[in-house]
Amino acid sequence: MNVAYFPGCSLHSMAHEYDLSTRLVCKHLNINLKEIEDWNCCGATAAHSVDHALAVGLSARNLSIVQQMNLDRVTAVCAGCFNRLKTASHEIRNNPRMQADVKEMLQTEAPVKPEVQHLLQLLVEETGLDAIGQKVVKPLKGLRLAAYYGCLLTRPRQIVEFDDAEQPVSLDNLLRTLGAETVTWGHKAECCGGGYAASDTGIVLDLGGQVLKSARQAGAEAIVVACPMCQSNLDMRQKAMGLNFRMPIIYFTQLMGLALGYKAGQLGINKLFNSPIPLLKSKGLA
Hints:
Order of helices and strands: EHHEHHEHHEHHEHHEHHEHEHH
Oligomer: single chain
Number of domains: 2
Distance between the termini: 30 Å
Largest sheet: 4 strands, parallel
């Protein structure tokens, strides 16, 4: 399966381990990721709060390159990037005026063809849980995990068209396919504070602290994420939140890699702030 790959700014910088594990897992599952040539920032949360047309145009340029690469789908692993790409695609397909504006901005036909999927969606809906389960060689037995979706992966419902906006289950199902146990908790789709990490850190400390406490109270030993912003906010700020436990925050692709037989070091698990290595060793997984 050939799929265009949008790494976004984070995957080439602070979330290198997410990129590393993503590429290993996809190669193992015969998903041929083709990084978008000369991609640009999706605009994240800043651009669309200032200029909606510009935000659509930024992501539309990336979609246009995908179309020029003759690929019919693009995947992103950052929930924010996925949301912006999906929003741009939705606007181009459903708003004739925006489609015309994008054509003028890009000086080429508006990219209406490429489908946009988060990697989690691609794996669950296209590869399939049964096929993934058949590849598992080291089940994640004994791990009690909190599957964290955050606020952008499944919202707005009418745009992203993936899972349930309030009670998503796709990541839970994937983790159980890998052999882990997932807990029932109330903050799986709540916001971590996102882009306020720089402009108003207090919001992140409050919202992120609620997420961590909820996962802990539910009996989770680690939180599993599908977004580099969520990972960073929850992993690096626990001390500032005044928490006296060190909860590992692990990318879902890293756990997939473990279950598929890769070593922790190959997946960048040793690079996370609150190390999951002691937990994984206690379960015979590292």
